[in-house]
Structure formats: structure tokens, C-alpha cells
Amino acid sequence: MTVMEKRDTRNDIIKVGMELISTQGYSATGIGAVLQLAKVPKGSFYHYFPSKEAFGLAVIDRFAEGYERFVCAFLQEPGVAPLERLRNYLDAVAQAVGLEEDGCVRGCLIGNLGQELAAQNETFRLRLEEIFNDWLKHLATILDQAQSAKEVDAGLDSRCMAGVVLSGLQGALLRSKVQRSAQPIREFTAVLFDRLLVADGR
User: Fold this and answer.
1) Contact between residue 161 and residue 138 where contact means Cβ atoms under 8 Å apart
2) pTM for this one?
3) Cβ contacts of 172 within 8 Å, gap of 6 or more
4) Are 87 and 175 members of one domain?
């Protein structure tokens, strides 16, 4: 088997695993089901992953890589004002959730796994924390830029507000799963921009 074939097979396993874990969780996702859907012989799994935990971390990393590109496409878009970039990002999240054919049941893979595994598995908890911290840095940077552009209050604690935005969005994504609607994300976005992110004297 060539290196390219090995890479493709590993990618297929991760892709199927991401789909299953997103909808039913890590604990409920069996390796046999993943391999069956990926059309990979059962004995091949441990050729690519030494354990289910290693497989789960690979799925997390793959999701994080894709979401990093998604976040940066909006938050680092050139020629667009900082708060407009932030709003465009949140609107895109709401649109993506609203377009899910399964009715918003996926939510955020990282948030879902945080709820499921943070108290059970320290390895997963630490990796998820790293990812959340990466997202916090992006949000704090865009808020710093908004301050420099005088779009928000000069006294705003950008790191603290970044945490509010991240926590609010994660909560809205959870509610979207329950309500089967992207409306909680839209409501959060409206309150964020109308009440929390305001300029001096507004």
C-alpha cells in the first residue's frame, strides 16, 4: 500500500468518525460502526490509530483545523471593519447551523465533547482547552482592533469580553440543538451588538 493510499484511508476514517461523534457523541461511537461506514477492514484501525483515544484526538484536531480556517476567513478578512467582521462570523455560524439538514442536532463538536468528556478524560480536557484558548485569542484580537478603530468603549477588557462572546455562542449553539433552530444564535448576536459592544457615548 502506498503512502497516498494510507493517507486517504486514515482521512476516510477520521471523516466518518467526525460525522458520528458530532451526532451521537464520543462514548456512543463504536469503532466497528466507524469502520463499517468508512468501508475499512476492522483489523486496519489500529494500523492508523493506537487507541480509540488517539482516534478521538485526531477527529478533534481535524475539526479544529477546519474551524480555524472558517474563523480566520471572517475575522481576518481584509478591508472590513472589525465589528463587521465579527458580526459576519456570527451570522455565518447561524446560517451554517440553520442549513443543517438534520435540524441543528450537531452543534459544536468541541463544545459537545467538552460537556461529555472534560470531567472524564484529562487528555481530552487539555486539548479542548487549548482549542478554546485559540478561539479566545482570535476574538480578543478582533475586539482590540475594534477598540483601536473606536468602534467599542476604550475601557473594554477585550480578553474578558472575548470570553463572554465565546461562552455566549457556545450556549446559543447548545440551545439551537434543543430548539432545532438557529434563532438562539441570532438572538445572542443581536444582544451582543445592541447592548454589550457599544462605543463611548452611545
Assistant:
1) no
2) 0.91
3) 184, 185, 187, 188
4) yes
Return d(Cα 35, Cα 162) in angstroms, integer: 39
Q: Which amino acid is at 177?
A: K
Q: Do residues 112 and 192 share a domain?
A: yes
Kindly state whether residues 158 and 135 are assigned to the same domain: yes
Euclidean distance between the first and final Cα of the chain, in Å?
64
The grid cell for 71 is 474563523
- Residues 161-179 have a mean pLDDT of 95
Check residue 7 and give its pLDDT. Answer: 46
Distance separating alpha carbons of residues 124 and 165, to the nearest angstrom: 23
User: Quick one: cell of 52?
Assistant: 480509540
Query: Which structural domain range is residue 9 located in?
Result: 1-49
For the ranges 48-57, 142-151, 172-181, which has the lowest average pLDDT?
A: 172-181
| Separation of alpha carbons 144 and 138, rounded Å | 10
Q: CB under 8 Å to 4, separation ≥6 — which residues? A: none
SS3 103: coil
